[in-house]
Sequence to fold (83 residues):
Amino acid sequence: MVKTIHEVAADLQVAANGYLFDVEVSDGSKIKLASGPVGFDGRSAPLEPRRAPLLGEHTDEILTGIGLQSAELERLRADVVIQ
Fold:
């Protein structure tokens, strides 16, 4: 029998094997994600699961890290080169 996604998420064996983990999303709520099929050091879920970054979330940090100044960032934003 094939289970639905909701049945799999509620399955006791899935929980016991650690196949699902909670990840906090951008609004602060938590969602359950399935671990990947590849395991390292006997674990299949990441040690510190986290959401993917939003578009442009780290732009300032990365570009200032390579030497751009805030005035340059604002000019790039105004020219719609970066978010």
